[in-house]
Amino acid sequence: MATSENFIKYVCEKLEGIGEIRYRKMFGEYMIYINEKPIITVCDDTVFVKKLDCIGDKMRNEKSACPYKGAKEQYILDIENEELSREIIMKIEEVTPLPKKKKKSK
Questions:
Q1: Beta 29-34 vs 37-43: how paired, if at all?
Q2: Does residue 88 sit in helix, strand or coil?
Q3: 65-69: long-range contacts at Cβ-Cβ below 8 A with a sequence spacing of 24 or more?
Q4: What phi and psi, each to the nearest 5 degrees, are found at residue 7?
Q5: Distances (CA, A) of 9 to 23, 28, 31, 41, 87
Q6: pTM of structure
Q7: Of 26, 60, 63, which is closest to residue 46 (Cα–Cα)?
Q8: What is the spatial distance between Cα 10 and Cα 90, in angstroms, rounded to a whole number?
Q9: β-sheet bridge partners, residue 30
């Protein structure tokens, strides 16, 4: 079951005010960028965030799974818990570098 565009828009609405938010369809599912940084993976209408040290204490009791075949295990973020979601996403955004620009081929 693929993620619906309605669900991805819903997740983005829940995050309004946290920074510049955009989403992009990738690998048949979605990546949500906060301030141009890839922060959230959404697969099968489930919100995932990377297992990072900066959120380990807050997320240790949360479920985790692989968002898609071949992916590393990630935390499942309960987007309905707005306070926790915002806190986690802000911490991840702080430590996530901007993606490197791809060099144009000649």
A1: antiparallel
A2: helix
A3: 67/29, 67/41, 67/43, 68/27, 68/28, 68/29, 68/43
A4: -65, -45
A5: 9, 16, 12, 13, 20
A6: 0.90
A7: 63
A8: 18
A9: 25, 42
Q: Which of 14, 15, 34 is nearest to 24 (CA)?
A: 34
| Residue 20, both tokens | 């510049």
Q: How would you classify the pairing of strands 29-34 and 46-49?
A: unpaired
- Residue 35 CB coordination number (10 Å): 13
Q: 25-43 pLDDT, tens per residue?
A: 987 799 999 999 999 999 9
Is the pLDDT confidence value at 56 over 90?
A: yes
Within 8 A by CB and 6+ apart from 105, the residues are none
Report yes or no: 64 and 46 within 8 Å, Cβ to Cβ. no
Beta bridge partners of 33: 22, 38
Cβ(45)–Cβ(1) below 8 Å: yes
Are residues 23 and 30 in contact, defined by beta-carbon separation less than 8 angstroms? Answer: yes
| Token reading at 49 | 């965030």
Report d(CA 8, CA 78) in Å as an integer: 14
Residue 76 CA to residue 72 CA, distance in Å, equals 12
